[in-house]
Amino acid sequence: MTASALNFMHRHLGITVQALQGIKVIELGQLIAGPFAGKTLADFGADVIKVEPPGIGDPLRKWRLLKDGTSLWWQVQSRNKRSIEVDLRTPEGQQCAKALLMEADVLIENFKPGTLEQWGLGWEVLHALNPKLIMLRISGYGQTGPYREKPGFGVLGEAMGGLRHLTGEPGRVPVRCGISIGDSLSALHGVIGVLLALYHRDARNGQGQMIDVALYESVFNMMESLLPEFDAFGAVRERSGSALPGIAPTNAYRCADGGYALIAGNGDSIFKRLMAVIGRPDLGDDPSLAQNDGRVARVEEIDRAIEAWTSTRSLDDALRVLDEARVPAGRVYSVEDIVCDPQYLAREMIVDHVTAAGDQLKVPGIVPKLSATPGRIAHPAPSLGQHNAEILGHANWQARDERMTDHA
Q1: Pairing of strands 47-52, 134-139
Q2: 258-271 burial string, b = 16+ CB within 10 Å, else e?
Q3: 183 assigned to active site
C-alpha cells in the first residue's frame, strides 16, 4: 500500500495508520539484539518476517522460563512478527533470502561479521540486488577493526563499554545488570539508525545504506562524562553502590521497616525543601550547600542527616511526606510492585495478551507513546514456520523467481 493511500485512510476513513505500516523487514538475527530491534519496528506497524533455522528456530524459544515448551520471553520478543523456516547455510536458502530481500525495505542481522558474506548475502551483493534496501548489522565489536571477528555477547559489550566497571559496591566484584542491557541498547541504537536511513531514503530520495552497530559502542555511548573527566583530570570513575558520585544528595536511604527510599534531592531548590522536611533547615540555609559542588564536598554528612530521618519512618510514610513536599522520591520496584501500580496501569504498560496457544499472559505495553500513529500488539508471537505457506507458498514463490530471473 502506498503512503498516499495510507494517508487517505487516516484522514477520510478514521482508520489509525501506524507509523511504519507498509515497511517490510526481514529479520535474520537470533536471540536478543537483532530481534529486539525487529520487535520495536513491528510494534509500530512494520511487517517483520522472522527467518528461523528449520526445525529448531531461534534459540530464544528455549531461554529462561518455558510454558508448554516455549519461552515466555519469546511471547514478548516476537510479537507482531511472522515466522518462516529457511536454512541460510544452503544455496536454496540463500536464494530464498535474496528473493525476499528484493522486495524488502530493511534487513536486520546480528551474526558474527563475515557470516552473511560466507553465505553470499553480504552488503555489496544485496545492495546491487536492491539499492533501496537498508541493512542493520549488530555485532559485538562492529564490522571493522581488529576485534571484528571475535564472538561478542551483551555482557562483554557492557564490560568493554565501561558499564560493568561502574556496577556494584566499592571494593567488591563488579556485578552485571540483571538484564541483557547491552543487547537492548544496541537494538535501540539500531532502530534509530533504521529510522534515519528510512528518512534519508524516502524524504531525500536517497538510496539504501548499511548501519553498523557494535554492542560495546552502544554501551559506551551512555557513559556520560566518563571520558572527558579522565582526559581532563585523570579521574577514573569507580563503583559507588547506590550513590551517584558528583551529584548530591542522591541515594537509597533505609527506612524503619527495612525498605529503602530513593531520594533525589540534588536540585538546589529541592535540597532546601528536603532539608526542611527532615528537620534540618540549618543545612538547607547553609550558603556553602546552596549548589551541587558544595553539597558534593559534604555528601556523607548530608546522607547521614537524611537517613537519620528515614530510619524513624516506614517507607510508605516517608514517601508520602516527601511527595507532599515535592521532593522526588520512590521505592525500589519488584515485578510484584509493577503489575499493580496505578501509573503503569493508567498508561497501559501492563497489557493482557492472548498467545497463539490461547493462554492469557501479561506483557509489557508499547514504548514510546505516539499520539497520531500509536503502536499496538496486532498479533501474538508466531509458532515456528507458522507463515511458511503464506510467504513461501508456490504462487508467491513463482512470482519471486520470475523477478529474480529478470534481475539476473
Answers
A1: unpaired
A2: ebbbbbbbbeeebb
A3: yes
Percent of the chain past pLDDT 70, that is, above it, reads 93
Position 152 scores a pLDDT of 87
Q: How far from each other are the two terminal CA atoms of the chain, in whole angstroms?
A: 26
Which of these is catalytic: 47, 58, 183, 303?
A: 183
C-alpha angle 266-324-319 in degrees, rounded to nearest 5:
70
Q: Does pLDDT of 272 surpass 70?
A: yes
Give the residue from 15, 7, 6, 19 showing the smallest Cα distance to 375.
Answer: 19
Decide: 378 and 353 in contact? Cβ < 8 Å: no
Which residues fall within 8 angstroms of residue 319, CB to CB, at 6 or more apart? 261, 329, 330, 331
CA 34, distance to chain mean position in Å, is 10
270 pLDDT higher than 60: yes
Counting every residue written for the chain, the total comes to: 408
Distance between CA atoms of 335 and 35, rounded to whole angstroms?
A: 23
Q: Which three cell numbers stand for residue 322?
A: 516527601
SS3 for the chain is: CCHHHHHHHHHHCCCCCCCCCCCEEEECCCCCHHHHHHHHHHHCCCEEEEEECCCCCCHHHHCCCEECCEEHHHHHHCCCEEEEECCCCCHHHHHHHHHHHHCCCEEEECCCCCHHHHCCCCHHHHHHHCCCCEEEEEECCCCCCCCCCCCCCHHHHHHHCCHHHHCCCCCCCCCCCCCCHHHHHHHHHHHHHHHHHHHHHHHCCCCCCEEEEEHHHHHHCCCCCHHHHHHHHCCCCCCCCCCCCCCCCEEEEECCCCCEEEEECCCHHHHHHHHHHCCCHHHHCCHHHCCHHHHHHCHHHHHHHHHHHHCCCCHHHHHHHHHHCCCCEECCCCHHHHHCCHHHHHCCCEEEEECCCCCEEEEECCCCCCCCCCCCCCCCCCCCCCCHHHHHCHHHHHHHHHHHHHHC
What would the grid cell of residue 307 be? 537517613
pTM above 0.85, yes or no: yes
**Cell numbers found for residue 291:** 549548589
CB atoms within 10 A of CB 211: 21
Taking 70 as the threshold, does the pLDDT of residue 328 lie above it? yes
